[in-house]
From TrEMBL:
The protein's name in its UniProt record: Transcriptional regulator, AraC family
UniProt-listed Pfam families: HTH_18 (PF12833)
Keyword DNA-binding: yes
Span of domain HTH araC/xylS-type: 180-278
PROSITE patterns in alphabetical order: HTH_ARAC_FAMILY_1, HTH_ARAC_FAMILY_2
Gene3D superfamilies named in the record: Homeodomain-like (1.10.10.60), Jelly Rolls (2.60.120.10)
Keyword NADP: no
């Protein structure tokens, strides 16, 4: 049974962006995705937020940027929340415009948004009034203000990505052909044991030189990085398939169930069974 649905948004080809202003919002929409970017501001409630394979609690004020086709959903207390959602096309700015120096922060933020980005409480608080004004403003000034909001968010400090890259199927660019080759190899062989030495051979390095190179480029040890990929892939299977947990364990390259459960809980804060149950609780048919 699929637990994620595709939403058809009301954004048209003639729109730069749309603003949806929901007072007394009801959280009755299942986990969903759509090709448009979405900036979502949730006020006056608390609950759980799902972005990809990230399930986290939020309180009072929550501001998240969600990339194209990234599954997402919120829960909260029905009838009390105020939710403002801004949706905009992936091509609302041309690729050439985004390569201009002044647009680099926005481009990099949009690239990361496929993982979901949450902003600090201070930044969120500073954006509330500006986002609320967009619900009533019209014309060219509203476009300028929207671009200004995106820029200010893109240069803000303490941004946090939410979903694991392997769940989304996207690895942050490292500007290295060798890292790209390594990622492709890891994805293709995720279901089996992978030794550091065999990956080092792909890029013609000794194991020790490869370890140093990999950590310098990714800021992670190879073993931790591979573990993250496996857990992200497992989370995707827990959400999108009905495979039993033992099958998922071995399909993701773990050689025993206890190690899989322990590693999953260390990374996600819950067991695979609890993770799947939380996903089911979100859905309201």
């Amino acid at each position: 049974m699929k637990r994620i649905v595709r939403e058809v948004t009301s954004l048209t080809d003639e729109d730069f962006f749309i603003v949806l202003n929901h007072f007394n919002a009801k959280f009755d929409f299942p986990i969903h995705y759509h090709p448009e970017y979405e900036l979502n501001l949730v006020l006056d409630t608390e609950g759980k937020r799902i972005i990809g394979d990230s399930i986290k609690e939020y309180k009072a004020q929550d501001l998240v940027l969600i990339g194209s086709n990234t599954p997402h959903a919120w829960t909260g207390e029905d009838g009390k929340a105020h939710v403002i959602t801004i949706q905009f096309h992936t091509n609302f700015l041309s690729d050439k415009s985004l390569t201009r120096n002044i647009m680099t922060p926005i481009k990099e933020m949009l690239d990361r948004s496929k993982l979901g980005i949450t902003f600090s409480p201070e930044v969120t608080a500073s954006m509330i009034e500006r986002i609320e004004r967009l619900t009533t403003s019209r014309g060219f000034d509203s476009l300028l203000e929207f671009l200004s909001i995106l820029y200010d968010l893109s240069i803000s400090r303490n941004q946090t990505t939410l979903s694991s890259a392997s769940y989304i199927g996207s690895i942050a660019p490292f500007k290295s052909k060798r890292i790209d080759a390594i990622n492709a190899y890891l994805y293709d062989n995720i279901s089996r044991s992978i030794k550091l030495s065999e990956v080092a051979n792909i890029v013609n390095m000794s194991p020790s030189a490869f370890s140093h190179f990999f950590k310098k480029r990714t800021q992670r040890s190879f073993s931790d990085y591979l573990s993250d990929l496996r857990i992200g892939h497992a989370a995707k299977m827990l959400i999108e398939t009905d495979n039993n947990i033992s099958e998922i364990c071995f399909d993701c390259g773990f050689n025993n169930l206890s190690n899989f459960n322990r590693t999953f809980k260390n990374q996600k804060g819950c067991t695979p069974r609890e993770f799947r149950s939380q996903q089911k609780l979100i859905i309201k048919h």
